[in-house]
Amino acid sequence: MISRFYELERFFFESISQKYIDLDEHNTAYATGVESFNLNPVMMRHCPENLGIFLQNCDSFYSASNLEWILGVSDIALQQIKGSLRGSY
User: Does 34 have pLDDT greater than 90?
Assistant: First the structure.
């Protein structure tokens, strides 16, 4: 059921976005072109290997269009981030 939700989420944001980029296998940034961070989300489903570089890549993607953005973090990614901060991810 969760995978179906992610499919629908992807379909929705692809259809309203001017552009989008798959940042890696699990995470996508969508740029609608609307100057509201709420409509320019990064959907983080899994924690990337290097969170700092990942966030820099997100910022570069949106900065090229002068857009603010928001990071949506799934429960899975949040647990992975917490684990990496504890050193056991």
Answer: yes
